[in-house]
Every structure is written in C-alpha cells, then in structure tokens.
Amino acid sequence: MKLRWSDVTPKADYLNRRAFIAAGAAAMAAPAWALTGKPSAYSTDQKPNTLEEITNYNNFYEFGMDKTDPARHAGAMVTDPWSVEVGGMVDRPGSYGVDDIAPQNALEERIYRLRCVEGWSMVIPWIGVPLAGVLAKAGVQPGAKFVAFETLYRPEQMRGQARPILDWPYREGLRLDEAMHPLTILATGLYGDVLPNQNGAPIRLVVPWKYGFKSIKSIVKITLTDRQPVATWQAMQPSEYGFYANVNPQVDHPRWSQATERRIGAGLFGGREETQMFNGYADQVASLYAGMDLAKDY
Ligand SMILES: Nc1nc2c(c(=O)[nH]1)N[C@H]1C(S)=C(S)[C@@H](COP(=O)(O)O)O[C@H]1N2
Ligand SMILES: [Mo]
C-alpha cells in the first residue's frame, strides 16, 4: 500500500471548512485526510516540502511582491462564496461552484515538482481534479483551440491590485491539448486540506512541466477560445516570458541561467540541482511539442 503524505503529516491546525459546510455537523468527526484524494501514479516520489515552506514562500502579486506578503495578506480575500464562470466555445456555459468543478469523490492527490522561472523549486502535494474532466463536463466545441484563465479582481481585498504591479486581473492560457493533458489539474487543496489563500484558494491551476507563473491562482473565469489568449507575464515582457513557458534548462532567461535551481528548504549547504527538461515530465509531455523549436516558442 502506498502511504499518502497526508497520512504521515499532522493535520494543519485549522478547520476543514469546506467539508464542514458540505456535510454539516457530521464532518466534525471527519478524519484528517478528509480532503485527501486518491494517490496518483503521476506523483513524484521526491520528498514534499513542509506545509510551513509551501505556505510562507509564495508568489501571489495580488498581495505584494515579497515572498512573505501572500502569507501575511491573503487572508483578506473572501473565498466563500465563490463561482467560476465557464464560457466561450462550450456547450454548457455557466457559473460553476467549486464543489461542482471538484467534487469530493473525484479528488486525487498529485505530488508535483513546482519550478519557478526565478530559479527556485518545491515539491507540493496537491489535491485536485484533472482539468480534462472539467472541460469535458462543460462540453468543448470542435473549433476551440485554447483555454484562457482569469484570477479574481477585487482590489479592496487584494491590496497589491491597488498598484499597477501587473496588468490586473492576472491572466493565463494553455493550448487545448496542454489543458487536456492528464498532468494538468485544478487544485482545491494541499496536504489533505483546503487550499490556503496564499496558494490560490479556493481553486487554482497546476501545470507541473511549465514555469510556475502559468499555474494561475484563485480562478474566476475559464474561457474556451480559438485564439491564443493573452497571458499577463507574456504581455508585459514578451522577450522574457513566453506563452509556452515550458521548463527548459537549455533555454536561459535573458537575465539568468535556467540550467539549475535551488530547492526551497534544502538549507545553506543544499547546493543547486540541475533543472530537468519539462521539469522532469518529458516522458509524459514531450510529444505535445514535436516539431516545435522550443528556443523560439519559449
Ligand atoms: N493570480 C496569480 N497566480 C499566480 C501568481 C500570481 O502572482 N498571481 N504567481 C505565479 C508564480 S510566479 C508561481 S511560482 C506560482 C507559485 O505558487 P505557490 O505560491 O502556490 O507555490 O503561482 C503562480 N500563480
Ligand atoms: Mo514563479
């Protein structure tokens, strides 16, 4: 039997809010891994970072640019109620609740590497559902070629949005085949509990073979389209951040090398590790880019 990390990790010291609301008083007796999905063959066997590391070293510019800003300020974001507008080229457009998109019985645990374009990395035990299933439920129309995502825009709760740090709201996009790939998930939890706000509550994208900025947080809009969507970082600095943003140790960022990475938590003497092609997921995803020049389509 494969032990889930959540089985050996003490429960986070906050209430399992969603299960409580969903199941009422009965949920008070729910086990610590109530939000833990089925373990997955797609998971890495590398040791996950601690909950402490995962929730205190974040990029979430809606709450400021320092790594500790999200942990300090994301609590102001109200995540319940929440709805995700699914639209564009789908048969069943509409406003979906988080539990419609990621019902309890469909949740899976995915322990993925996360490689930030800045040159650091972590291993995170996500809980979520494959995006492919969500798109299938919405009914993707034949002409659709891309999926566009948008983060919540609510400057009164997201203090960074009061400043023009980025062109708000944060936007990202995937090619449809990337969105349908079994590694691509919408996460609603980590370490067996609901997603902390600083990690993109209540629902965020996780695309483990791409630089972290593609994994957009706190999603309110998913749109199927036949045109390549505008992505925030790409629009701001196209020479530095491409639409594809596949992790690639051979294609350097104009201002730094991407050959190596620093694993958060490795300590002072941890040293840098070699970055792997497609962040180590080449066997699963390289075929998506057959015939493409990845130095050009970075
Ligand atoms: N809306 C939004 N999504 C975002 C970001 C952001 O600033 N805003 N930062 C991205 C970047 S650069 C990274 S590395 C990851 C970090 O995810 P984590 O904080 O859960 O580790 O979130 C990504 N998603
Ligand atoms: Mo990042």
TrEMBL record:
An MF annotation (GO) of this entry: oxidoreductase activity
PTM text: Predicted to be exported by the Tat system. The position of the signal peptide cleavage has not been experimentally proven.
UniProt KW Ribonucleoprotein keyword: no
Cofactor: Mo-molybdopterin
Keyword Metal-binding in annotation: yes
Documented EC number(s): 1.8.5.-
Matching InterPro entries: MsrP (IPR022867), OxRdtase_Mopterin-bd_dom (IPR000572), OxRdtase_Mopterin-bd_sf (IPR036374), TAT_signal (IPR006311)
Catalytic reaction annotation: L-methionyl-[protein] + a quinone + H2O = L-methionyl-(S)-S-oxide-[protein] + a quinol; L-methionyl-[protein] + a quinone + H2O = L-methionyl-(R)-S-oxide-[protein] + a quinol
Residue span, Oxidoreductase molybdopterin-binding domain: 79-233
PROSITE patterns associated with the record: TAT
UniProt keyword list: Metal-binding, Molybdenum, Oxidoreductase, Signal
Residues at which Mo-molybdopterin binds: 58, 61-62, 116, 151, 199, 204, 215-217
Subunit structure: Heterodimer of a catalytic subunit (MsrP) and a heme-binding subunit (MsrQ).
Similarity annotation: Belongs to the MsrP family.
Cited PANTHER family: PROTEIN-METHIONINE-SULFOXIDE REDUCTASE (PTHR43032), PROTEIN-METHIONINE-SULFOXIDE REDUCTASE CATALYTIC SUBUNIT MSRP (PTHR43032:SF3)
Function according to Swiss-Prot or TrEMBL: Part of the MsrPQ system that repairs oxidized periplasmic proteins containing methionine sulfoxide residues (Met-O), using respiratory chain electrons. Thus protects these proteins from oxidative-stress damage caused by reactive species of oxygen and chlorine generated by the host defense mechanisms. MsrPQ is essential for the maintenance of envelope integrity under bleach stress, rescuing a wide series of structurally unrelated periplasmic proteins from methionine oxidation.
Listed name of the protein: Protein-methionine-sulfoxide reductase catalytic subunit MsrP
Taxonomic placement: Bacteria, Pseudomonadati, Pseudomonadota, Alphaproteobacteria, Rhodobacterales
Name of the encoding gene: msrP
